[in-house]
Model the fold of this input.
Amino acid sequence: MTTRRVRIVGSGRAGSSLAQALGEVGGWEVLPLLGRGDDVAGAAAGVDLVVVATPDGAIVEVARAIRPRDGAVVAHLSGAAGLDVLAPHRRRASVHPLVALPNAAIGARRLRGAWFALAGDPMGSELVEALGGRAFAVDEADRVSYHAAAVIASNHVVALLGQVERLADAVGVPFEAYLDLVSATVDNVRELGPAAALTGPAARGDEATIRRHLEALPPDERDAYRALADAARRLAAGR
Done:
């Protein structure tokens, strides 16, 4: 089995998670990470793959700073960026892990077997295969919409649960009780699909209860409730 050599540029949560995960699975020699302030010009020397694990806004600058090397693939981990941001490198790939990476230890665990959005050079598929992951392709024109859905599925759900926690604290109910409700709801969606899994006042057309909820909620919590009640009505109307 050929051992691949990889250099990761970016020592944040994504880069550190990937470095740890690849170090654990074997078959990849992970060179020391390059972080902010390090000279990245020679990052592609003597490696099969360079992964740019920086914030999206820095990818173009970092990619241009890396001297192109024949045979070396340069990839990024962005969900929204296309392959064009990796110019001038000839072999380019995008490997976006569809998983939240809160820190290196948890992130390394979650990268194993995760879903990945792939584009570009086949080296990306090798990386996913090494991690035991599952892959799908996203057209360049659809990447921003794809990433928006990912943000809704992860970040917006966390923000919504922050609202649940605030309201639970206000009435003295354990937050964990609501988390169990969330877990069961996600199981229902996985088994039945979103439309069939929808329950509650919007699903049954109970506008009186929705009005009572809005009256009871603190003013600064109402906009989010209204927006999601509208989304629930839309889902209910389509089933």
Q: What stands out?
A: The first strand starts at residue 4 and ends at 9.
